[in-house]
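Bug report

Summary: structure tokens for Acyl---sterol O-acyltransferase 1-like isoform B differ between web form and batch submission.
Environment: batch mode, default settings.
Steps: 1) Submit the sequence below via batch. 2) Compare with the web form result.

Sequence submitted:
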Amino acid sequence: MEAAAEALEELRQLPYAHKMAGVAACTLLQAAWLLRVASHASSPPARLLLTLPVLAANAAIPLAFKRDTEGVTVAFAGFMLAWLANFKSLALAAGRGPLAQQPWSVMQAWVLLVVPIVPASKRDAENPGPPLMLFLRWLLKAAVTAAVVFALLSEPPAFIRSCLYILGIYGMLGVVMDGPAALLLRPLRLQLAPHFRAPWESPSVAAFWGIHWNQAASNALRTTIYDVIVEQSFLGGGLADTYHCHPAKPTANGSAPDAAGASTANGTAPITARRRSTRLGGTAAENEAAGAAAGAAGSGAAAAGAGKPAAPAKAASAARRALQRRRLWGMAACFVASGIAHEIIFIYVTGHTTRWLSWQLFFSGQVALIAAERRLLAWLQQRGTMPRLLVRRAATLAVLMATAHPLFFQPAEVAGVAALFAASMRESFAALAALPAQLLAVC
């Protein structure tokens, strides 16, 4: 153990650029290895076993950086590699997730593994736009992030700081996602799903987490946990058939092939043909509609059961209830897993968990909020007194901020994480602002 600790400390002392180059090389090898495993290992247990070295490497990478001077890198390595990349790797072993969507090239798989982005399919109702639009959005979010970190210098009241933090997180994640996407879309022939869908337009807490906020994390949780529980199967497709094919050519707009046209034969249709209603935290109406459809399909005769014995109707009703229970358990498992992942990132940055595991409480508590919200909305709908959309949006943001302020942002502030991020971002923006003058001086 002492030898390992000494080796790790020596690794931390390496120049930052050398460590980043090492991370790039390591993750590129991971992408190539995962594609080879997907192509040659037909047994799911074998794929899982061969994926373990990737999981271990990604969990170790954040430890190679210094907490005091490279804390932001530690946090993003924990988020992008120890969490998202590992979840994508596990999903691939099960025939699920973005890496199993089609036989990607090594470079495409590398980007999809490392960068928090989600590839689009033809069934996506919208896309984030062309590279130029992504670049302009990146500039806007960078400006928002800069405004937030410099506004924090005035030391506003605690709740206002929490509001600024959430705006800063939105901008910072946008910078991390939209910047690489703008650069890589055209060279790698990728079409992406939107990363965020206007969080301020969320009509419910469920819609906020499932549709509007950080789709990279939502997709990772959905493909590795939610879909497994709802479908009662760890496996999502036949990877051997998929990766023995020649790489699929992108469509005219660069998107992945439609599930019906390219993936049904090899068993990967469930990956790209997900219903909108089965997204993590879908609305009550969406889930009820999906449950009714699934129940009717499961009964085999429910649609044509008029005038016949009531057994098919009872079977359909039981199937709907079972589906709703699995969705509830799947949603709960996703929020618990998200809380654990956030606590692990906090450990990477600080060396300890949040006090009273408050981040875990925050995410786990969303399950109770969503359950109560669905009951309330169903009751209001029955009474015919459903609030206007603007009122629902305002109530959603108020509830989220009322829980995030004491359970998420204040613990981060007490531990110094918020100040660390703000100071690091201010230094980065100051360096960028000084760059033109430095270039002119050199010329």
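Above is the batch result. After comparison, the two runs are identical; trailing whitespace caused the diff. The chain has one domain: 2-442. The chain has a mean pLDDT of 81.
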